[in-house]
Write a structure and sequence with these properties.
- This protein is an alpha+beta fold.
- It is about 30% helix and about 30% strand.
- The strands form two sheets. Strands 5-12-6-11-10-9-8-7 form an eight-stranded mixed sheet, with helices on both faces. Strands 1-2-3-4 form a four-stranded antiparallel sheet, with helices on both faces.
- Helix 3 packs across helix 4 and helix 7 packs across helix 8.
- The radius of gyration is 19 Å and the shape is globular.
- Pfam families: Acetyltransf_1 (PF00583).
């Protein structure tokens, strides 16, 4: 097995893009990242490839394992054609022995296998942060009831959006209610300027939000779904996700992809009613 460490994002893109596209929806995160790096339009925060860890593990048959980490985020992996090669995992772990990896987020079986080998070699442990399910949608259920009007998030929303954003981040742990108080407007203005986030209004009042994440060749990620507690149970999240999913399909994407926390039965039920179908389960593991 050959451990290849990349310093050129363009070379890494050329070597791995086609392979990752074999499971486009499953590889939403690594694909989206290498597209960002390849385009080079945005190098804010973690998006500058100069700080990335990019690795492939190959044998005579070709690449068997792909790994990318965009600090401070976890490493993401893809076993070619979802066939786990133990030798490839061991080779990767050997190559990472002098690096600190905070955790892994990838397909469940691969995540568990890698975490066990990595922590065994490091003499540490790992714990599950979140059990996720990846869904994709190719057509919106026509029977879904749509309420309210969807519009792009705008600068005029700066008076409430930062608080919704922090509440959304806090809810990354299902049931968590403590959130940070926004201090600096710039990160939120950056989000607004991306023109990827949408607000659902009911009678002119903002009641829910959702938006897009990574754009790929045929798929686009849907995320940032948040409804304030006092507006829940009214079908708002269902409506906005259905509407922006249809909007993405109308723009020419053939599928929408989203991650859910399996600890949240409500969101998993909502997305399936809209037309999202499960692709695979994913784990977010933290190394301790």
């Amino acid at each position: 097995m050959q451990f290849k460490l990349y310093t050129d994002v363009y070379e890494f893109y050329n070597d791995t893009y086609g392979m990752l596209m074999r499971h486009e929806a499953q590889n939403l995160i690594p694909l989206g990242n290498i597209i960002i790096g390849h385009e080079g339009k945005d190098k804010t925060d973690w998006r500058d490839p100069v700080n990335w860890l990019m690795v492939t593990i190959s044998d005579a048959k070709g690449i068997q394992l792909t790994a990318i980490m965009t600090p401070p985020h976890n490493i993401t992996l893809y076993a070619t054609d979802n066939i786990i090669n133990p030798e490839a995992i061991n080779c990767l772990v050997d190559g990472l022995k002098d690096r600190e990896i905070p955790g892994v987020m990838t397909e469940k079986t691969l995540a568990e296998y890698f975490a066990k080998e990595y922590t065994l070699r490091k003499g540490t442990t790992f714990k599950t942060i979140m059990t996720q399910r990846i869904y994709e949608l190719t057509a919106v259920n026509p029977d879904i009831q749509k309420v309210g009007i969807v519009r792009l998030l705008d600068k005029k929303d700066i008076h409430f959006f930062p608080y919704w954003a922090e509440a959304f981040y806090a809810a990354g742990s299902y049931g968590k209610t403590e959130m940070s108080i926004p201090q600096d407007a710039d990160p939120y203005l950056y989000r607004i300027a991306s023109k990827k986030l949408y607000i659902l209004e009911d009678n002119g009042i903002p009641v829910s939000m959702a938006g897009y994440t990574r754009e790929m060749q045929t798929a686009i990620g849907v995320a940032f779904v948040y409804t304030p507690p006092y507006e829940r149970g009214k079908g708002y999240a269902t409506s906005i996700v259905a509407q922006i999913s249809q909007l993405a399909l109308d723009k020419g994407f053939t599928r929408c992809v989203l991650y859910t926390d399996l600890a949240n039965p409500t969101s998993n039920s909502i997305y399936q009613k809209i037309g999202y179908m499960p692709i695979c389960d994913s784990l977010q593991l933290k190394f301790e």
